[in-house]
């Protein structure tokens, strides 16, 4: 509380270095980011990542109903009877 009141009156980059117990220019001392802020940011990021990885459900749009079920045109029938298929592929018995 005494430290907080003193820090409120400081100008520029001045702040309290808890490690040394002195008021100093925080940038020159290499204290750029308060430890609690960085720790909290990392904890929140890890928490959200874990939540996304363990989600077992997803929200999507309903499929549109239509008569074309994505099937292409009808396929051709088998090869011409008695042709025996491709060499080495078996084909009809006795035709090779």
Account of the 3D structure:
This protein has helices at residues 2-9, 35-54; strands at 14-17, 22-25. The chain is built from 2 helices and 2 strands. The N and C termini lie far apart (98 Å). A hairpin with a 4-residue loop joins strand 1 and strand 2 (22-25). The model has no long low-confidence stretch (mean pLDDT 77). The longest helix is centred in the middle third of the chain and has 20 residues, at 35-54. A two-stranded antiparallel sheet has the order 1-2. The protein is rod-shaped. It has a domain at 2-54. It is an alpha+beta fold and 96 residues long.
Summarize the structure.
With 96 residues, this protein is an alpha+beta fold.
Tags for this model:
single chain, alpha+beta
Provide the spatial order of strands within the biggest beta sheet.
1-2
Unreliable residue stretches:
none
Helix and strand pattern = HEEH
Instruction: Report the total helices.
Output: 2
Task: Report the average pLDDT across residues.
Answer: 77
Structural class: alpha+beta
Cα separation of the termini: 98 Å
Shape: rod-shaped
How many DSSP E strands? 2
* Percent of residues in beta strands: 5-15%
Give the secondary structure arrangement, pairings included.
Elements: H1 2-9, E1 14-17, E2 22-25, H2 35-54
Antiparallel strand pairs: 1-2
């Amino acid at each position: 509380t005494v430290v907080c009141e003193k820090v409120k009156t400081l100008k520029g980059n001045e702040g309290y270095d808890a490690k040394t117990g002195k008021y100093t220019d925080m940038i020159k001392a290499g204290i750029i980011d308060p430890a609690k802020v960085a720790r909290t940011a990392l904890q929140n990021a890890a928490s959200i990542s874990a939540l996304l990885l363990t989600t077992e459900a997803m929200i999507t749009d309903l499929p549109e109903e239509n008569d074309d079920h994505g099937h292409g045109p009808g396929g051709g029938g088998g090869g011409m009877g008695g042709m025996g298929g491709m060499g080495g592929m078996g084909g009809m018995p006795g035709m090779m």
